[in-house]
Design goal:
- The chain is α+β, with helices and mostly antiparallel strands and about 300 residues long.
- The protein is about 20% helix and about 35% strand.
- It has four helices and 15 strands.
- Strands 2, 3, 6, 7, 10, 11 and 12 form a seven-stranded mixed beta sheet that branches. It has a three-stranded antiparallel beta sheet with strand order 1-4-9, with no helix packed on it.
- A hairpin with a 4-residue loop joins strand 10 and strand 11.
- It is elongated, with a radius of gyration of 28 Å.
């Protein structure tokens, strides 16, 4: 009976301790220097498609290597959104122009500039050893097999936002990185990714710095080739099956429809069924990167 009585007393105590630990998790993290000390950092990049129509455009979804199960879902949702906008205009309802949740992509020539808002809670104070804003262009290979370092920074710039001091309330500080040459497009693949991001670092004495990041999507518009001739390819089995593929052109835009035809030149076997597939292939590796940098034959891989 005594053992059972003690077990009944210990169980509520353990429950109370666990709940208290969960509620005070943020306080414990701040006590050991792993938290933000109550500091909230917001990074805002200037520019919209309305203010820079030649440099900024909206994206339907965040770029990713994953293929949707139904690729026509995006087109269907896009048509539905356009239909809703037309109905709102016919009824005289002003459409919602909030751009806070929309994804924007910037051209390689657009200057990265904006503002950083540092907010402290009421009655709180944070002593720091300086605040810096950094701009990185990074090739990240953590998702696949790599030789050596998992990432490589081909752009690394840093500027001082605030000198050492203390933060009491809300402060907004502008920043800009002008004339930065962006050689690669933003790419999020299965094994490798290329990304640009703005990072804010708040240095503290005897404690790890407080950091915040904001990714900047970059695209490099291509130029349509002057010569885009059709191509033909013949495959098959000797004296049994000869098939000829014809494509209207060699290079396609992302929004183009791939059109062509298949000619059965020789058929001496029974064909059960035939399938067509569009395959996306990703090639990565340090050897490929070095070959591309030196202008080798694998530069477009």
């Amino acid at each position: 009976c005594f053992v059972a009585f003690m077990a009944c007393l210990i169980a509520p105590i353990v429950t109370i301790v666990i709940v208290n630990r969960l509620e005070n998790k943020d306080k414990i993290m701040s006590f050991f220097g792993l938290g933000s000390g109550g500091l909230q950092i917001k990074i805002t990049v200037n520019g919209t498609p309305d203010s820079h129509p030649n440099d900024i455009v909206y994206l339907r979804h965040r770029p990713s290597w994953k293929v949707r199960k139904n690729v026509f879902t995006v087109l269907k949702n896009h048509d539905n959104n356009n239909a809703q906008l037309i109905q709102q205009q016919q009824r005289g309802i002003a459409p919602n122009k909030s751009n806070n949740n929309r994804i924007m992509v910037y051209s390689c020539d657009h200057d990265t500039e904006g503002s950083i808002t540092l907010t402290m809670g009421h009655g709180k104070k944070l002593d720091h050893l300086g605040i810096q804003v950094k701009f990185f262009g990074r090739i990240d290979m953590e998702g696949g097999v790599h030789e050596g370092r998992p990432h490589y920074d081909f752009i690394s710039l840093s500027k001082e936002l605030l000198p050492p001091g203390s933060l009491y309330d809300t402060r907004t500080v502008p920043f800009n990185f002008r004339g930065v040459e962006k050689l690669h497009e933003t790419y999020h693949g299965r094994n490798v990714s290329v990304k640009y991001f703005v990072q804010v670092e708040v240095k503290r004495q005897w404690l790890p710095p407080i950091t915040a990041e904001h990714e900047v999507l970059v695209q490099i518009p291509g130029v349509e080739p002057s010569v885009n001739e059709p191509i033909k390819m013949e495959v098959g089995i000797e004296d049994c099956l000869h098939i000829e593929f014809e494509y209207e052109k060699r290079c396609y835009h992302l929004q183009d429809v791939i059109c062509g035809q298949i000619n059965f030149l020789l058929v001496r076997i029974k064909i059960k069924h035939m399938e067509l597939a569009v395959i996306r292939r990703e090639t990565s590796g340090e050897g490929l990167a070095q070959s591309a940098a030196m202008g080798g034959p694998n530069g477009g891989g």
